[in-house]
Specification:
The complex is a heterodimer of chains A (117) and B (110).
Chain A lengths: L2 E5 L4 E2 L4 E8 L9 E7 L6 E6 L5 E3 L7 E6 L4 E6 L8 E8 L3 E4 L3 E3 L1 E2 L1
Parallel strand pairs in A: 2-12
Antiparallel strand pairs in A: 1-3, 3-8, 4-5, 4-9, 5-6, 7-8, 9-10, 9-11
Chain B lengths: L8 E4 L5 E6 L11 E5 L6 E4 L13 E6 L2 E6 L8 E9 L4 E4 L3 E5 L1
Parallel strand pairs in B: 1-9
Antiparallel strand pairs in B: 2-6, 3-4, 3-7, 5-6, 7-8, 7-9
Classes of the chains: A mainly beta (117), B mainly beta (110).
């Protein structure tokens, strides 16, 4: 059974860079069958797609975040990562990693990242 | 502000049926498949429906999906208290080059 687990610092200071990793178990991320993505959810609000990455490093980013987002993939570690620069309080959210094709079929449990001023 | 609009809340008595609408446009629902996600408080979203009307393994047939033009609908029959959750639609927007989620709908069992 595929499992995804987010990891990263529990708190980020405003203007700094948010860095998260997602470790995948129960399946390989080195596959042309799926994308690997990040979705976030501010407390009490809806879902927002941040971006997705393919096994070969091809990325797609939400245009509204594109200037601040970098995603990478480490197939040898079965991990993929997210970096979001110049964070503000508006970036405080639950961050989920997920597997996708045209839909997101497996999700991590999410990690809350508060941004402190 | 999402390009997919859902009613904030829907409700019905146990055993009854609810439908959740998802309204979009020609560049998203008008062109691409819709998926639906169920989210309980404090939990990650879970895929409920994909490619408009396909249920992943383990999802009961009380849940159904459809799409017509630029709108989609999720139906839940035989409503149970365990169905109380937030529900989101989602699809790719070919103009924005962006996966978009709906605004979300809270289902309440009266």
């Amino acid at each position: 059974q595929l499992q995804l687990q987010e990891s990263g610092p529990g708190l980020v200071k405003a203007s700094e860079t948010l860095s998260l990793s997602c470790t995948v178990s129960g399946g390989s991320i080195n596959t042309a069958s799926y994308y690997w993505g990040w979705i976030r959810q501010p407390p009490g609000k809806g879902l927002e797609w941040i971006g997705s990455i393919f096994y070969n490093g091809y990325t797609q980013y939400n245009p509204s975040l594109k200037s601040r987002v970098t995603m990478s993939i480490a197939t040898s570690k079965n991990q993929f990562s997210l970096k979001l620069t110049s964070v503000t309080a508006a970036d405080t959210a639950l961050y989920y990693c997920a597997r996708s094709t045209w839909y997101f079929d497996s999700w991590g449990q999410g990690t809350l990242v508060p941004v402190s001023s | 502000q999402s390009v997919l609009t859902q009613p904030p809340s829907v409700s019905a008595a146990p055993g009854q049926k609810v439908t959740i609408s998802c309204f979009g446009g020609s560049s998203n629902l008008g062109k691409n498949y819709v998926s639906w996600y169920q989210q309980f408080p404090g939990m990650a979203p879970k895929l409920l429906m994909y490619e408009n009307n396909k249920r992943p393994s383990g999802i009961p047939d009380r849940f159904s999906g459809s799409k017509s033009g630029t709108s989609a609908t999720l139906g839940i029959t035989g409503l149970q208290t365990g169905d109380e959750a937030d529900y989101y639609c989602g699809t790719w927007d070919s103009s924005l080059n962006n996966f978009v989620f709906g605004t979300g709908s809270k289902v309440t069992v009266l």
